Amino acid sequence: MLEDIEAVFFALGHEVRRHIVLLLGHSGGELPSGYLANRFKHSWPTTTRHLKVLEDAGLVEVRREGRSAMYRLRRERIERVIGGWLAHLAPVDPARTWTSSGPRTASALAERAPTSRGRRRAKPRTRSLTQACERYLEFAMEHPHAYEMLFDGFAQPPSLHEPWPSFNLLRLRLTDRLRGTPRKHTRLMLSLWSLLHGTAMLLVRGGVAGPLRTQMFHACLDAVEAIVAQAARSKGKASSGPKWPSTLILGEAGHSKVTDGEADSRAESLTTRQRDRSKAKLAPGLHGVRYKA
User: Fold this and answer.
1) What ranges make up the beta strands (E) of the chain?
2) Tens digits of per-residue pLDDT, 216-258?
3) Residue 101 has what DSSP assignment?
4) 177 and 222, same domain (yes or no)
5) The overall pTM is greater than 0.70
6) How confident is the model at residue 170 (pLDDT cuts 50, 70, 90)?
7) Same domain, 267 and 195
8) How many Cα atoms sit within 13 Å of 246 on the Cβ side?
9) How many domains does the chain have?
10) Which of 47, 79, 111 is the last residue of a domain?
């Protein structure tokens, strides 16, 4: 039951897939894949991947007709899984009893529960950057279709302003290693994320298996370790390209933005210089010859 709940809620976690479910629900019957693809601005393969996630979660069933595919909503599964989950939210009767070696009633169990003051915060499953990177790659290999979906338009709203759990967890573990604040390490985290994502996509799309898969997996982890070790030695002083702009904020949900403030400033400065040049007058004593810019 728990696996069903996880699969269904994951499938409904993307707005495109929720939209597809609504379309199928309103139709009351079957809809062709071509019709569904035409309702979105992204490419046909992207829609196909979304449909595959819904199919894997058991939310839709597909019927093939030649080169076309007809999709129908599995209402009974949605009602059973989500309804079963909602049933767990119902308050428990304090007089309810069960067989147990500990508290035998719901009220007694509540008395045993720790208070908010004494409750310890649950620790994440990963305690180091290396473990977090391992989990990242393992998830990509175990859930290839879901992994590919996660990055559709990730740098554009609304995905830009949604939480980035994997990015934030990795950045937190990086901060534990190098100290400072998470935002301070965003540029380094972006390089590690790019390395992990590149490796994950090669493993997923390349059909890599056997010894090569194992070597690529650990080669990526070794590269991450080497980059972080070098960053620790240089203390973040060595970097190429322009300084990280204060207007570029990632992984902070509603506070995230990708505005290029430096580019805007350069453009404004260039416009000012051009305006000044256009107002320049003829230089005296040079027979009407204008200075060339």
Assistant:
1) 30-32, 60-65, 68-73, 248-249, 257-258
2) 999 999 999 999 999 888 876 657 788 888 888 887 777 778 7
3) S
4) yes
5) no
6) confident
7) no
8) 1
9) 3
10) 79
